[in-house]
Write a structure and sequence with these properties.
The protein is α+β, with helices and mostly antiparallel strands. The protein is built from nine helices and ten strands. The protein has one domain. Helix 1 packs parallel to helix 4 and helix 1 crosses helix 6.
């Protein structure tokens, strides 16, 4: 295992703690939750279906990066992907985390720029909005941000998938909800993480995470389409309980 691969493992381990904080900070977004509380509950995704996401993507080779059960329960997601991918004999490496929420309102508020800082990381500069071009001409809007903690530095590429469409950040997701009915069929948040080091500078790291995003985004869309709705979405009452359950 190269030094860069070891650094990636350290960054992913630190990210696990941040993922937990991301869901805790999400509880403060009450106004948006009030609008979403009447929306449809996200159809359940079978975690086994996510195992179909390829372990090999182009020249990238993947391996599972399991999260502790306590973290999974605390994040309140019904399914997730957590993997490391390597290419170029391990010289280039990324961590991939994709979260699928049980309820739309539980997943929407998670922002790395808030929660990494809450976990003791310092943000280096402001998040940057970029648009990547996929092979079919589709534009992938995303946010790129960099953090440091002690001697460690990491870069994150972050975006959302909402009903088959890409969104760069939480503000654009909110805008879709405020303009619409508040109902969302499915939502996922994608984070691609890679360390910045003396061997792999910021420019190289951005190139690596962007390349992986372009190759993996169409596969994530296809995976979500394949995982579609095993049962009708439930309508929620004001307290977040299924109206069908209440009527029973």
């Amino acid at each position: 295992m190269t030094d860069n691969g070891i650094n990636t493992k350290r960054v992913i381990s630190a990210a696990i703690a941040v993922i937990f904080l991301m869901f805790v900070f999400g509880l403060t977004h009450r106004i948006l939750a009030e609008k979403l509380v009447y929306s449809e509950q996200m159809p359940p995704i079978n975690p086994d279906d996510l195992a179909k996401f390829p372990m090999e993507i182009g020249l990238w080779k993947g391996q599972e990066a399991p999260l502790p059960e306590s973290i999974i329960e605390a994040t309140d997601t019904d399914a997730h992907i957590s993997r490391n991918y390597f290419r170029n004999n391990g010289l280039e490496s990324i961590g991939l985390y994709v979260a699928f929420g049980q309820k739309t309102r539980d997943l929407i508020p998670h922002r790395p720029e808030v929660c990494y800082i809450g976990a003791g990381w310092a943000r280096l500069g402001l998040p940057r909005s970029v648009e990547l071009s996929l092979d079919d001409g589709t534009r992938l809007p995303c946010s790129i941000m960099q953090f440091s903690k002690g001697t460690s530095k990491t870069m994150i590429l972050d975006y959302y998938i909402v009903d088959g469409r890409f969104f760069s950040d939480i503000s654009s997701v909110r805008l879709k909800i405020w303009r619409g009915s508040g109902a969302v069929s499915f939502i996922a948040q994608v984070q691609i993480v890679s360390p910045v080091s003396y061997i792999q500078n910021a420019e190289s790291t951005e190139r690596i995470i962007s390349a992986f995003a372009v190759e993996s985004a169409p596969l994530l869309i296809r995976l979500l389409e394949d995982c579609k709705i095993s049962k009708p979405a439930e309508k929620l009452s004001a307290n977040g309980i299924s109206e069908e359950s209440v009527s029973d």
